[in-house]
Task: inverse folding
């Protein structure tokens, strides 16, 4: 509550003196434990902002909305540590200018919300390094461990079962801050790489392609996983990819605004044990 | 009499090294398994993961990707980029249940005609042992089946 009041008054101040044109935050959602994104443009609306432990969506994807930042005015946004990491990636991939972004950083343990100190992307590097050094316990994701223990046939059967439910609504893509391509590969029809009907084959291909495009970029905010209407555990695939780039290339997504994308860089001494 | 399974293998090769190596195998009259369909590309860096998925979608049982040794790339570092990409893509396929045994990678230079012939023979044998990729073929069949209402 204290944090909510603190950020409300900060939002009012910034909007009143014109130093930001918009504050992107949360408002009450359709049920008691849901929160909906809120785009505050004026001083009066700032009282609708809500901040509590139910504010879990990563809002950073709204920053790349076409035209939002093109007038070079500044925007403030509520971000959790993962959100700050995805902001770093967007900046590293030249999708936005971080100088235009004021961060209202927060995190929560249980129901307790605390604010993060700093308001510019560069000020959170220590926090992000500490997240890299202290990864979450493996036991927090028992299903991931379970899948890794299966043989390829069992794994294939597991994902076949999961993907057979996919209806290709692309909610995972729409909710993902990293999926900003104007034209997604799945929308390309000359050549058509991915079957667009929701056969399991096309669902497999779509989810593999999306996971590959997120390798080394996903920060694990869980937007895709939560938005999936048929509850496919998409976070597991992305978590596996994040673990892979960390192990193989010591790459932790979103460390800084100048971090080189992992698949657009290389080292001569990269591992090649799998090459015949 | 049961026929032995003849796998379909798609090889994506770079034109400067492995394709020239395959050419050398041919001009040296080396005999190798006829199961491989070679697709020539400018560089291993040009090979998109989509190509692998497309090959599987069209019924391939195995895939081979081959290019210049590190340091020999005609475009100076295309194969370094490719190597990173395959490291990640390979583990992704593995996690999705597409056995990494079916997707092979190698470096073959223009001078290694013998290595090319041996590699094709070995890969063909390995894939033959794995058998047809039935799990994936079931999915392909599903897309071809008439719609049920």
Result:
């Amino acid at each position: 509550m204290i944090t909510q009041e603190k950020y409300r008054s900060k939002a009012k101040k910034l909007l009143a003196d014109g130093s930001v044109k918009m504050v992107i935050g949360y408002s009450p959602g359709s049920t008691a434990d849901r929160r909906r994104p809120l785009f505050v443009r004026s001083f009066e609306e700032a009282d609708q902002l809500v901040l509590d432990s139910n504010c879990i969506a990563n809002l950073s994807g709204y920053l790349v909305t076409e035209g939002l930042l093109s007038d070079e005015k500044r925007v403030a946004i509520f971000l959790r540590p993962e959100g700050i990491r995805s902001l770093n990636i967007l900046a590293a991939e030249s999708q936005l200018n971080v100088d235009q972004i004021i961060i209202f950083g927060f995190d929560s343990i249980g129901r307790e919300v605390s604010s993060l100190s700093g308001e510019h992307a560069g000020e959170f590097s220590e926090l992000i390094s500490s997240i890299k050094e202290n990864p979450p316990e493996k036991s927090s994701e028992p299903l991931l461990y379970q899948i890794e223990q299966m043989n390829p046939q069992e794994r294939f059967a597991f994902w076949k079962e999961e993907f057979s439910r996919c209806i290709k609504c692309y909610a995972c893509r729409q909710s993902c801050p990293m999926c900003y391509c104007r034209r997604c590969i799945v929308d390309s029809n000359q050549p058509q790489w991915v079957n667009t009907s929701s056969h399991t084959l096309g669902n497999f291909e779509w989810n593999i392609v999306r996971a590959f495009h997120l390798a080394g970029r996903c920060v694990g905010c869980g937007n895709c996983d939560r938005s999936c209407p048929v509850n496919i555990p998409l976070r597991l695939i992305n978590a596996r990819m994040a673990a892979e780039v960390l192990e193989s290339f010591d790459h932790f997504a979103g460390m800084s605004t100048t971090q080189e994308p992992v698949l657009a860089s290389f080292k001569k001494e990269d591992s090649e044990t799998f090459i015949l | 009499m049961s026929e032995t399974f003849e796998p379909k293998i798609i090889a994506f090769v770079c034109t400067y090294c492995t394709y020239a190596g395959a050419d050398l195998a041919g001009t040296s009259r080396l005999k190798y398994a006829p199961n491989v369909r070679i697709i020539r590309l400018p560089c291993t860096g040009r090979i998109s993961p989509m190509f692998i998925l497309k090959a599987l979608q069209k019924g391939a049982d195995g895939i081979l990707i081959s290019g210049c040794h590190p340091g020999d790339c005609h475009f100076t570092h295309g194969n370094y980029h490719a190597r990173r990409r395959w490291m990640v893509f390979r583990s992704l396929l593995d996690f999705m249940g597409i056995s990494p045994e079916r997707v092979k990678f190698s470096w073959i230079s223009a001078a290694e005609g013998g290595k090319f012939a041996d590699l094709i023979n070995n890969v063909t044998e390995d894939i033959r042992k794995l058998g047809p990729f039935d799990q994936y073929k079931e999915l392909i069949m599903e897309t071809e089946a008439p719609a049920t209402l």
In short: Residues 2-132 of chain A form one domain.
